[in-house]
Specification:
This protein has 324 residues and is of the alpha+beta class. The protein has helices at 12-21, 32-48, 73-76, 112-115, 117-120, 125-135, 142-149; strands at residues 23-26, 82-86, 105-110, 154-162, 172-175, 189-194, 205-207, 219-223, 230-234, 262-264, 271-275, 280-282, 293-300, 320-321. The longest helix is centred in the N-terminal third of the chain and has 17 residues, at 32-48.
């Protein structure tokens, strides 16, 4: 199932599989020259960001109330900037950085799609088509994929490079992307590009197929009402994109058991689409191999509310339109 349509959207078979499983792997969505250019850009950023005045903000992922989420201004004001967030295990017990800075970063975010030309090109339809023509690869267009899925006004609201560093790359527990990027009703879809091979050894993603159909978005990461920081709260809004195709009563007996997850090993250049309600996770990277990926998320801009409680707030120009 490797071929998108001539326009760069999903084929009927691909769309059916995405709707059934909640995720879809599209092999060789990026040419190797594009992968190389994105890795060069990533390494340039990692090597050259100034650490002298960095607040050494660390990033923790989780969706339970007992997880202390990152919430300083450096994080909360990153929606229109490129900022660098450290792995927890890059520091010793005394808080001293024990890894070279370029080997200590968990992720870079959250406006690469607006400020980094190589990454911005991935949502530029004209650039995508020119690259495919020049290198003989397929046209894989995020705008056309969003159209295939049913978006009326897709908006890219955040983008990240996630490094999953050798030896210290942290595990990410089961979560749903709409917990962190909530619209009323939920609409988030992730576009996840492997820039290096992602394997069981270095912490590839694992998915619970079909869980988007029965796993409600029960929690939200929001800005604290009083003071700085973020917190997990109960979601008092809609928990599914609609009530006709989704039903919590369809959950398997015993719920989201570990043995139901399926590993998603991918090659550099592959694209993974991830439904915002889908349960997915990744394990710790204890290997000597890195696992650099690039991901951005799209939400529906038409007839959806993106409220001021969300940790990520839009830049002055608004979230980036995919349909121009």
């Amino acid at each position: 199932m490797t071929t998108t349509t001539a326009q760069g959207g999903l084929s009927e078979e691909q769309l059916a599989k995405f709707n059934k499983d909640g995720y879809l792997i599209i092999p060789a969505a990026l040419t190797q020259s594009t992968v190389s250019a994105l890795l060069t850009e990533t390494h340039n950023m990692l090597n050259n960001f100034p650490i002298e005045d960095h607040p050494l903000t660390r990033f923790t992922t989780g969706d339970s109330t007992d997880v202390e989420h990152v919430g300083d201004d450096y994080f909360l004001e990153s929606g229109d900037k490129i900022r660098f967030f450290f792995e927890e295990d890059a520091f010793d017990a005394a808080g001293k950085l024990i890894k070279p800075k370029e080997k200590a970063i968990n992720k870079i975010g959250h406006y690469l799609h607006g400020l980094s030309p190589p990454f911005a090109a991935l949502i530029d339809d004209e650039a995508i088509r020119k690259s495919a023509q020049a290198h003989g690869g397929p046209v894989v267009s995020p705008a056309e994929i969003a159209r295939s899925i049913g978006f009326q006004d897709p908006r890219c609201l955040q983008s990240m490079v996630i490094c999953k560093q050798p030896e210290i790359g942290g595990a990410v527990p089961p979560h749903q992307d709409s917990t962190f990027l909530y619209t009323d009703r939920p609409s988030a879809v992730g576009f996840w590009y492997a820039l290096e091979d992602a394997t069981l050894e270095n912490g590839c993603l694992s998915f619970l197929p079909g869980s988007h159909r029965w796993a409600p978005v029960e929690r939200r990461l929001v800005r604290k009402a009083a003071g700085k920081g973020t917190e997990m709260v109960d979601n008092d809004g809609p928990r599914f994109p609609n009530e006709t195709e989704y039903d919590a009563a369809a959950a398997p007996e015993g719920g989201a058991k570990d043995e139901l997850y399926v590993a998603g090993e991918v090659k550099a250049g592959d694209l993974v689409l991830i439904h915002g309600n889908l349960l997915h996770k990744s394990e710790r990277n204890t290997s000597q191999k890195g696992r650099i990926i690039y991901t951005f998320h799209v939400i529906e801009g038409q007839d959806r509310e993106y409220d001021a409680r969300n940790w990520l707030q839009p830049p002055e120009v608004g979230f980036t339109k995919l349909f121009l």
